[in-house]
C-alpha cells in the first residue's frame, strides 16, 4: 500500500513570495490533515478535511494561508505572501476515519 | 484545552540497553487516545504505538511498550534492546475521542541518541 505522498520535499523562497504544497493521501482515506512543525517543536494542526469539507481550520492563518481538497482526494496548501516565521516543515497526514494518522515525508520550507 | 508535556528534551541510551521516555498530559475527558510517534532525520513521522484510554492493558509492539497510568495522566514509552536505528525524535500525542475532530496534540519531543 502506497503511503502519503508530498511534494516538493524542499522549497526556498523570498519573503512576500507565494508557495504551494501538494499532498496525496493513502487511497481510501477520507480524512486529511495539514500540520506545521517549527524547528524544535511538535507538529501543530493547520487544517483538517473530511472528504472535501473542512472540519477544523481554527489554527490556520487565513489572511495568508489557504487549503483545498477538491474531489476529496489530494490537497493543496498555499501561503501567500510568505513571512519569515512561516519557515517550518509542513506535514500532511491521512486516516481512514479520525483514527490513527499516517504521515507523509513533509516539505521543508525556508523563507529568506 | 488538552496539553501534552515531554519533560526530557534529550535522552541517551547504550545499544542493547533499555530506555524510558516520559510523557504527561492534561485533559478533562475520560476517553481518548494516546500515541507515540518516531521522527528520524528524514522527517517522516512513524507511528510507534497507540493506546486507547478505556483499555487497562498496556500496549506493546515488539521492543516497544508503554506504561499507561490514567489516574496520573502519564504515558511513558519503554524501548527494550535499543538499536542504532531507534535514534530519532520521539513525540507523544493525544487525540480526543469520536466525532469528526481527530487532530493530534503533540508534545515538544524527546531526542533519543543511541550509543554503539
Describe the model:
The complex is a heterodimer of chains A (112) and B (116). Chain A is built from no helices and eleven strands. Chain A is globular. Chain A is an all-beta fold and 112 residues long. Helices cover 0% and strands 50% of the residues of chain B. The radius of gyration of chain B is 14 Å and the shape is globular. Chain B starts with a strand and ends with a strand. In chain B, strands 2, 5, 6, 10, 11 and 12 form a six-stranded mixed β-sheet that branches. In chain B, strands 3-9-8-7 form a four-stranded antiparallel β-sheet, with no helix packed on it. At the A-B interface, strand 5, strand 9 and strand 10 of A face strand 6 and strand 10 of B.
Characteristic key phrases:
heterodimer; A: 112 residues; mainly beta; seven-stranded mixed sheet; four-stranded antiparallel sheet; globular; B: 116 residues; six-stranded mixed sheet; 12 strands
Largest sheet of chain A: 7 strands, mixed
- Cα-to-Cα separation, first versus last residue of chain B: 41 Å
Structural class of chain B: mainly beta
Strand content of chain B: over 45%
Shape descriptor of chain B reads globular
**What percent strand of chain A?**
over 45%
Q: How do you describe this structure in short?
A:
With 112 residues, chain A is mainly beta. Chain A has no helices and 11 strands. In chain A, the strands form 2 sheets. In chain A, strands 2, 4, 5, 6, 9, 10 and 11 form a 7-stranded mixed β-sheet that branches. A 4-stranded antiparallel β-sheet of chain A has the order 1-3-8-7, with no helix packed on it.
Amino acid at each position: 500500500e502506497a503511503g502519503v505522498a508530498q511534494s516538493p520535499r524542499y522549497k526556498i523562497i523570498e519573503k512576500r513570495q507565494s508557495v504551494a504544497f501538494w499532498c496525496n493521501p493513502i487511497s481510501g482515506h477520507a480524512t486529511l490533515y495539514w500540520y506545521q512543525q517549527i524547528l524544535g517543536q511538535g507538529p501543530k494542526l493547520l487544517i483538517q478535511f473530511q472528504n472535501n469539507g473542512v472540519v477544523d481550520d481554527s489554527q490556520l492563518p487565513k489572511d495568508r494561508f489557504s487549503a483545498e481538497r477538491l474531489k476529496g482526494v489530494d490537497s493543496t496548501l498555499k501561503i501567500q505572501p510568505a513571512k519569515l516565521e512561516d519557515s517550518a516543515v509542513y506535514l500532511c497526514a491521512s486516516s481512514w476515519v479520525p483514527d490513527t494518522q499516517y504521515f507523509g515525508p513533509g516539505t521543508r520550507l525556508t523563507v529568506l | 484545552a488538552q496539553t501534552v508535556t515531554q519533560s526530557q528534551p534529550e535522552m541517551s541510551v547504550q545499544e542493547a540497553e533499555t530506555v524510558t521516555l516520559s510523557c504527561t498530559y492534561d485533559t478533562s475527558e475520560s476517553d481518548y487516545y494516546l500515541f507515540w510517534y518516531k521522527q528520524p532525520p528524514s522527517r517522516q513521522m512513524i507511528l510507534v504505538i497507540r493506546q486507547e484510554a478505556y483499555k487497562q492493558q498496556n500496549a506493546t509492539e515488539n521492543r516497544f511498550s508503554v506504561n499507561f497510568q490514567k489516574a496520573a495522566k502519564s504515558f511513558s514509552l519503554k524501548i527494550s534492546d535499543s538499536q542504532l536505528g531507534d535514534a530519532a525524535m520521539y513525540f507523544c500525542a493525544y487525540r480526543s475521542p469520536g466525532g469528526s475532530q481527530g487532530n493530534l496534540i503533540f508534545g515538544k519531543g524527546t531526542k533519543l541518541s543511541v550509543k554503539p
